[in-house]
Amino acid sequence: MSLTTGSGPLAPNPAGRFSAPVPAAVVYVEPFRRRVRGRSGGVVVLDSERVLLVHQPRRPPTYAFAAADVPAALGTPEPAAPGYVQVPWDAVEEWFEEEEQMFFHPRNPYHRVDSVRTTRRLRVELAGVVLVDTTDTVGVYETALEPRLYVARAHVRTDLLRPSAADTRTYCPYKGVASYWDAVIGDTVVADVAWSYEQPLPESTPIAGLLSFDETKTHLEADLPAPADLPWSP
Q1: DSSP class of 99
Q2: For the stretch 76-108, what's the b/e string if a residue is b when 16 or more beta carbons lie within 10 angstroms of its beta carbon?
Q3: Which residues of the chain have pLDDT under 70?
Q4: Interval 181-228: pLDDT, tens
Q5: Is the C-alpha dihedral spanning 153, 157, 163, 164 positive or negative?
Q6: pTM, 2 dp
Q7: Which of 22, 32, 41, 93 could be 53's S-S partner, Cβ–Cβ 3.0 to 4.6 Å?
Q8: What structural domains and CATH numbers belong to the chain?
Q9: Could you tell me the CA-to-CA distances from 69 to 47, 54, 92, 132 in Å, in that order?
């Protein structure tokens, strides 16, 4: 996320512009001042405090470790950092930064989630029925991603929603585990039309229990700011 994906500054389609050209496929490498461990079968197989964070286009950040800290069978050279090696995420069963377990990929230090109370309108309609129409919303502004509106259940036709029949779950390293909701309107059933974070991670607690809706499965109108055109070119 952030630097190299979405609309980040080093992503293929950045939201803004640099004042001078940046080389294509540039890789950004920086020190990562945390202890990182990999564990398999309850045994620590990798333990290092000599860690780099590597940001590559279109990819979330990855760790690179001092080669001496990694068993030879696990590591491959990191081209952007001589003397350091990469370890595939699935090469070990569990990853930890200090004593906090990480899932899917390292968190990005440049990624931020701001949840802001707002009066921007959200209207959601499905199968001719209005599920939401309110200006009592929370805007979620997440680095390099499009802003979204979340809404309290008191403003939603929750009588037309049920927990996902497929028990769909997704994970965000910055918000936590999302639970999904199906819409049931008469004979119309639309799977996973909305989601919520019931127990979000600390930085996202303002959206605990709130709902957001999938604009590809509903007719959704969200009063959100359009991308601004910069008045200059590099």
Answers
A1: T
A2: eebebbeebbbbebebbeebbbeeeeeeeebbb
A3: 1, 228-234
A4: 999 999 999 999 999 999 999 889 999 999 999 999 999 999 988 776
A5: negative
A6: 0.79
A7: 32
A8: 1-109 (2.170.150), 113-222 (2.170.150.40)
A9: 7, 17, 15, 54
